[in-house]
Task: structure prediction
Amino acid sequence: MNVKDSREFFISKKFDNYFFNLYKAFQFILRFFKEVFKPPYEFKEIIRQCFEVGYKSLPLITLTGFVTGLVFTKQSRPSLAEFGASSWLPSLVAIAIIRALAPLVTALIAAGKVGSNIGAELGSMKVTEQIDAMEVSAVNPFKFLVVSRVVATTLMIPMLMCYTAAVAMLGAYLNVHQNEATSFISFFQQAFEKISFLDIFSSFIKSIVFGFTIGIVGCYKGYNATQGTEGVGKAANASVVVSMFLVFIEEILIVQITNSIR
Amino acid sequence: MENELYSMNNKELMISIRDLYKSFGDNHVLQGVNLDVHKRENVVVLGRSGTGKSVLIKIICGLLKPDSGTVNVLGKEVDQLNDRELRELRLKVGFSFQSSALYDSMTVRENLAFPLVRNSRDMTQQEVTHAIESVLENVGLSQTIDQVPSELSGGQRKRIGIARTLILNPEIMLYDEPTAGLDPITSIEINKLINLVREKFNTTSIVITHDLTCAKATGDSIAMMIDGKFLKQGTFEELFNTQDERIQNFYNYNFINQK
Result:
């Protein structure tokens, strides 16, 4: 039963619809976990989606990662120099990039580029009855459209995060090299001195969670789009806004958990 | 009960609908629909936009669930089927959408291969290609095989949409507004195609339309839907040989007032 169909509400129409939508979202996530392990598998589509999510995001991720590393190093130098601690710059930058900046920057870029793309694509397929067409031709649209995209984002965002971290470190190295003439090897030796396994592991886990969130939110919003072309725009917009919001919440939670372990 | 329905009147009963009700909130779309469709029969459901015609065929193929009533397709109660049974039934029921619903990101070849390779996993690549070429030839669009939907005209899209359902060899075809948005010449071609499909593929069809030319050309029997239920059913001549003002108005607006 849809809450909108009912005349009587448990609390109020707004609250009831909110909880009903929350319930629907959990059902959607549950369905993903049921379908993901069930054959037949759409390997070809998963690979195609990995290419779309991963390879096609590289130019934007390269630029953003490089600028982040370069600018962060440039801005941090005066403060450290004030305390005569410029030599700490490589380790400071590495900690910032690996622990926080790389996963977060990658997730925010992916939410904007990949999340909106998924929301708009599935939304337009929904309003033009392409999803219904798959269903009536005895094909499981959820497996083909949702599972493949969520698997792709969950696999590719951690890889993109590693790439972002590498490019950002390169940006940081160029700035340090320009100012202090530090060699490539000694920069990275200093940088990784303070990095522990937990830092890398937690960032990787964070990226997996972010990737899953971006994929599932985009798919959920697109798959449930209504009201024609207006609905497609709303689905794309909501995919970005909701996934960014959830990424920040997850970032806070994972940082708290990691710090309690450290 | 199921078998009894299936072989009633010595003519196989393919679809049987009894006391079907469906509402969306306060909008009561279907209000007690009854319909029988026999083997190789083309039944046209005629009515104004928004009267629930499309909802009816979406319930028949299990895309929507009815509020009450029974929908028996090929001897099976549609709303009682589990996912696997519903998938099996859908292989026998083709659905041609009003908007054609071709997959934008795929070529015509990929559109046609999509349901086929997923439902017949043991087919070789050669067999798939042969099936695609054969069904395209049947709808007269062999030359479009490597085009994408955006390069096709409205009529071509409709034909490819029909071809995509025919590739699974359905026993029943459901056409949702097959001539909507098409010019009169293309509409006539689509009407001919609907009749050709019945001849070549031995299908039973329900055609949803508000186009009287289409109804006359394709329907053995025409059911007039007004206010969520069938007001009258019969041949084209029987249907419009009536004093009922609502049916007369529908005829007049199509054939007289528009001229």
In short: The interface with chain A takes residues 23-25, 58, 61, 63, 87-88, 90-91, 93-95, 97-99, 101-105, 114-115, 118-119, 121, 161, 164-165, 168 of chain B (CB under 8 Å). Residues 1-8 of chain B have pLDDT under 50 and may be disordered.
